[in-house]
Structures are given as structure tokens and as C-alpha cells.
Amino acid sequence: MLLPPAYLFVRSFEDGVGNVLEVALEGRTLAVLLRSVVLAAAVTAATVLVAVPLAWLTARTDLPGRDAWTVLAALPLVIPSYVGGFVFVSMLGPRGILQGHLERLFGIQELPSIYGFPGAFLALTLFTYPYVFLTVRAALRGMDPALEEAARSLGSSGWETFFRVTLPQLRPAAAAGALLVALYVLSDFGAVSLLQYDSFTRAIYIQYRAAFDRTPAAIMGLMLIMLTLAILYVEARTRGRARYHRSTAGAVRPAPTVRLGGWKWPALAYCGTIVALALIMPVGVLGFWLARGLAHGEPLRLVWDAALNSVYVSSLAALATALAALPVAILAVRFPGAISGAIERLTYVGFALPGIVLALSLVFFGSNYAPWLYQGLAMLIFAYAVHFLPQAIGSTRAALLQASPRVEEAARSLGRSPLKTMATVTAPLARSGILAGMALVFLTTMKELPATLLLSPTGFDTLATRIWTATSEAFFARAAAPALLLIAVSAIPMYLLTIRDRMKL
User: Fold this and answer.
1) Distance between terminal CA atoms of the chain?
2) Residue 329 maps to which CATH number?
3) 215 near 73, Cβ under 8 Å?
4) pTM
């Protein structure tokens, strides 16, 4: 995890401290930093407001088709930001598909511009809320309902119980998801670039591509790391040292299903609206471009070889990242302190950095110090683990907070070693969080682009690289088929995860 910041530190201070201060305190740099912070804060707040009700409806209520809604609500996570940005421009732009239909029907000549903050805010909110949705839903599924039942037996209403008992227990999971959203927004390039919002990541990318001297880009990368550390500090201060497991003996059992009654229709409308904007509209626009390409003679390319490569490397990355995340999460939850806190926070640095910065740091390391790993599959998996480790740690940590350490202590007192206790007691207790983390890593690895482009073995194409190749050359019809295939392939593990969770396997 120290490789990316070490690379940035070396590049930044090549010309001395004075040059670093000059670039960092420049008015344009500070303005870009402020815009990035505003966008990250707005998107993070919006995703929590969207995802928490959605998670509760699909985990605790008798919502019709809630397993299907779970899969559909998580799928926007697999839509690459550069595809999502193109979809919004193509659909909602001043001269987009929607405006064309409105002009024919009502004579509307032009829609309000979606470029800038409104478009970036809307796109990133719709494509990142699954981070909060999956972690909160996993916490709801693993939560012991005893406290809620005690509150109801003492006369609290359903709403009072939710806000005073359930919601506080969800704070670690919501904070873990919100932290991922904030860092993702800071590192995103595709959506902000296509929607023309000047964020920190876009400035770093332009500096890397347009300037021969990459030192200013490295300095801005260091500033992004400092911003990440500030966000982690605020998150740690708000997290506190509260306990979220029960202190008495007893077995965790499923919470009773809440009957929606007349609220069923508003709940369905809410879920339908979110899924329509975040999934159906992008899929519809991709389908439009696919049909348009086929009508003009474009051959149908489903690129099954790239799909198999994507599934293979994403599965390896999910497994490796989950294994790496479990001991870090255990250390942070069971042995809180300065060292464990520093180790946990360090893992978030790689996630906050733009993919191109992370990839270039590993290219520097591989070409100079580990040539036997350079452009090999092991280096690619390593890059994914560095980039997406916080996704697995956040959900695993939230699940461990709800598991009483007394069970682990009992296993140790009966003679089991720490490693056996972790494998046979701790990991099963945190199962829901581990699976949610693996799902997050799998889905985001499927769409990862910069690391794949720079670090993958020669000839190793994935669906993300095929989509990027087509969209970068403005062949949108050619990109539609692999983009739709990416969404379809990613739906399978999400569906299996939902069924496994429901059946308690």
C-alpha cells in the first residue's frame, strides 16, 4: 500500500520543496481542490439518502420481488463511469435522445445543460450508491433483532425503533459505504471528464497526458492523498468506539419481516425510480446504439474471450482481496489502537488515487525493481488488491462489529489456535460482510480500466478494454454489445449472492 505514495513522493520532491509549495498553493490548484471536495460531499450525502431506505426495503420487508430488486439495485455498480457519462450526455444532453423526442412531441428546442456539477452529481450518485446499499444491506441481514424487539415491547413505534435503535446500529456499515463513495468520487475520471466538471482527477490526468514534466501531476496526487487522510480522520472521529454486538449470550436469528401493507406501492415506486434511472436508462441507451449499429451493418461482437478474461481476473481479485482484508479488519475491530488504525487507514490511499496514478506507480516499481512481475497476471491482481482493498475491509469490518468476541474467546479457551479460530469462527461470523466485500471487488474489477490497460499481459483483453477501445474512437455502436455483456455477466454473481444470503447457506 505504500508503493503509490512512495512513487508520488519521489517524483514530487525531485525539484525541491519550493516547487511543491508553488504548485500546491496556486490559485487554480486550490479551486480544483475545492470543486472536488464539494462534489464528493454532495454525492456522498445523496448516496446515503438513496441507499439506506433501499437496503431496508430489500432486507427487512415483504417488498414483492425483493431478491430481484436487490440484484437490480446493485448492478449500476458495474457500469463504467466513462460509459455512464456517455449515456447521460447521449440521453439527457441539450441535443440528446430525450430532447429529440420532446421536440417532435412538444416543440422543445433545447433542454437545460447537463454539463458541469449537475450532470456529474447525478451520474456519480446513481452509479455509486450501491457501495452504501450493499454494505448496509449486509449489516441489516446480520443484525440481531433482540434490541428492536425490546424497544417495541417497551412501547416504541416502528418509526421510533428504526431511528433510535436500528439506524444507530447501521452507522458503521453506512460510514464504510459512504467512505468508499467519497474516495471513488475523488478518483473518478470518466464521468467528470465527459460531463466537463473540473475535478482533481481530471486535472491530474490532463497534466500527465499534456505535459512532458509529470512533477506537477505527482504533487497534485500527493495533495489527493492528504485529502484522503483528512477524510479518513473525520470518518474515524465520527465512528467512535461504540460496540454493536450483544453483550449477553444467545444466537443471532433472522429479523421478522415487516409488512408494508398500503406502503407497498410507494415502496415499489421508489425502487422502480432508482432502478430506472441507474440501470434501465443506461441499458436502454446502449440497446439503442446497438440496434442503430446493426441497422447500419455493424456486426454483432459479443467478445466471449474478453468476457471469460474479465470473469477470471475479477474472481481472482475478489478472492485475494477478501483474504487480505480479513486480518486487517480483525486487527482494526478486535485490537483497536494507533497502529491498527494507521494500518486500516493506509489501505484507503490506493482507492482514492486515480487509476492512472496507481498504474504508473506499479509500472515504475515493476520495471525497476520487479521485472519478473511486470506485465504478468500476478502484478495485475496485486494492482486490483491495492486499489479495491477498502471495499472488502469496510463491509467485513461492519460485520465483525456486530459479532461478539466472546465466541472467539470461547474457541481459544477450548484450545484452538488463532489461525483456526479466524478460519472456523471469525470468518463465518463475518460471512455476510465478506461476501458483500467480494461482490464489490468483483463488480468494480470487471469495469476497471487504467490498471488493466497498463499492467495486463500482452494480448489479455477484458470487456472494459474492449469498451474503451470502441468509445475512445467514437464507435458507440461497437461498444454497446460488450457493455451490455458486461452488465449481464455481472448480474450472475449478484443473483447467486442474493439467493445464498436468503437461503442462509
Assistant:
1) 34
2) 1.10.3720.10
3) no
4) 0.78
